Amino acid sequence: MDIAPTSSINDRAPDQFGLAPVTPWHIAEDKLETSTMDKTPRAGSKLAILLELLTRPEGATIAGMATATGWQPHSIRGALSGILAKRYGVQVVSEVVEGRGRVYRRG
After folding, report:
1. 23: number of CA atoms within 13 Å, CB side?
2. Each residue's pLDDT tens digit in the chain (107 positions)?
3. In angstroms, rounded to a whole number, what is the distance separating the alpha carbons of residues 19 and 97?
4. What is the distance between the alpha carbons of residues 36 and 34, in angstroms, rounded to a whole number?
5. Listed residue (94, 80, 2) closest to 41, CA to CA
6. Cα(60)–Cα(66) distance, integer angstroms
7. For residues 66 and 73, is the Cβ–Cβ distance under 8 A?
8. If we measure between CA atoms, which residue out of 79, 83, 55, 56 comes closest to residue 66?
9. Measuring CA to CA, how many Å separate 10 from each of 4, 7, 13, 20, 25?
10. pLDDT, position 6
């Protein structure tokens, strides 16, 4: 007696279950880059404060940015490398300045 294979849940397409198809990450990232690169943080927000500090000719230290925003140093570093760099396209450069330590500026 031959038994015909049955279809499993894994064999069905997502739309058969009423689910939206999954967008691959690289496509989602491309959409993010094109949709937010021309935007700036909301005026008066902590991200706007960080941008203002980074734009000054003397730059800003992590300690100075922490005092201005009330954030922890790890949150500031995350904002510099993640949100500002990736979402808003802001290039941040740093250098060690004698007497101040590492100073960050908008590049």
Report:
1. 8
2. 566 666 555 565 556 666 666 666 656 566 555 554 557 888 999 999 999 999 999 999 999 999 999 999 999 999 999 888 888 889 999 999 999 999 999 98
3. 54
4. 6
5. 80
6. 10
7. yes
8. 79
9. 17, 8, 8, 15, 21
10. 60
pTM to 2 decimal places = 0.63
Q: What tokens appear for 90 in the block?
A: 């802001």
Residue 4's φ and ψ, nearest 5 degrees, are: -75, 140
What pLDDT is recorded for position 13? 58
85: tokens are 């760099």
Is the Cβ–Cβ distance between 77 and 22 less than 8 Å? no
- In the block, tokens 């404060």 appear at 49
Domains and CATH numbers, the chain: 40-107 (1.10.10.10)
